[in-house]
Amino acid sequence: MRVLVTGHQGYLGSVMVPVLRAHGHVVTGLDSGLFADCVLGPAPEEPSTIRLDLRDVTASHLTGFDAVVHLAALSNDPLGALDPDITYAINHQASVRLARCAKAAGVRRFLYASTCSVYGAAGEDAVDENAPLRPLTPYAESKVRVEDDVTALADSGFSPVFLRNATAFGFSPRLRADIVLNNLVGTAVLTGQVRVLSDGTPWRPLVHAQDIAEAFAHALVAPIDRIHCAAFNVGMEANNVTVAQIARTVADVAPGAEVVITGETGADPRSYRVDFSAIRKAFDDYLPQWTVADGAAELYARYLQYGLTREGFSNRFVRLAHLKRLQEAGVLDSTMRFEHSGAGRR
């Protein structure tokens, strides 16, 4: 299958591409390059790439593809809150435009990377795909809007699927240090402390980047009548954990690290547990492999192996800090576009 992966030079995309290739797909990437240089360790092998801002995609860019895997977004809550208008322009409007272009180009499958954060403050009960959506941030709200608008495009020739990923973790060649497990392991490596700023009580569902990639690989080939226009939570129940539990797991794999829960930011309203049974029923042989403890051990080893630094941890691998630095250097304008951008296939 010929597959276009948007955001292939991001955290998830850098894991997704080799997984899809291993499943036999011919992969092309589409990315503006915002995070292309955010590499820790060996740089990943690049597929054929369309260097293009998501907002500039046309149907001609998508001609000839059997499927689109749409990952590209401004991805996390603090970044989304920085300028909600830009978040909605990229995450919502450009995503819906991409889907329309894909449909016009004859692309049959459209796999969208949504998020379990659409459930917001869901309480103690594990929520499934039919639960009310209560997004608490512009990032989560943008995902809900895309699901609604792309659902309206579905027909017999265009089949969208919405993969609601739990909070990602795990090593990627293009690292992110601003997601909870990756961050706590980094603080343990660099400071000897596993420092939690909240009160540690919020629930988080976690899933390894590799398990996310495998879910998309399964969705690409699943019978369309089984998954057409459906949403699936991506993860496993064993990885529904509190932030305090995550911190203790990190301390278990980081020798001498001390758990410090400061509580300075108070209770986080984003607290939810998730039911993942639907994806196991839809994809007969799909079963996530990575536990939180496995991921913590992997991250700890890779951070030491590749020499994680304080600068990288605090700046290069933090989405908001990285983009602010590019803007201050005049590389990006106020709308997150490159000042001198080019487009085209290479």
Could you characterize what this model shows?
- The protein has 346 residues and is of the alpha/beta class.
- Helix content is 38%, strand content 18%.
- It has 13 helices and 15 strands.
- It has helices at 13-22, 59-62, 77-82, 84-104, 138-151, 180-191, 209-221, 224-227, 243-253, 277-282, 292-306, 310-316, 319-328, and strands at 2-6, 26-31, 48-51, 67-70, 109-115, 126-127, 159-165, 167-169, 193-196, 203-208, 231-234, 240-242, 258-261, 273-274, 344-345.
- Strands 11-7-5-4-1-2-3-15 form an eight-stranded mixed beta sheet, sandwiched between helices. The protein has a three-stranded mixed beta sheet with strand order 8-10-12.
- Helix 1 (13-22) links the parallel strand 1 and strand 2.
- Helix 9 (243-253) packs across helix 11.
- The longest helix has 21 residues, at 84-104.
- It is globular.
- The model is unreliable at 342-346 (pLDDT under 50).
What's the total count of β strands? 15
Mean pLDDT across residues: 94
The shape, in one word, is globular
Radius of gyration: 19 Å
% residues in beta strands: 15-25%
Strand order of the largest sheet: 11-7-5-4-1-2-3-15
Task: List SSEs in N-to-C order.
Answer: EHEEHEHHEEHEEHEEHHEEHEEHHHHE
Helix percent reads 25-40%
Q: Biggest β-sheet, characterized? A: 8 strands, mixed
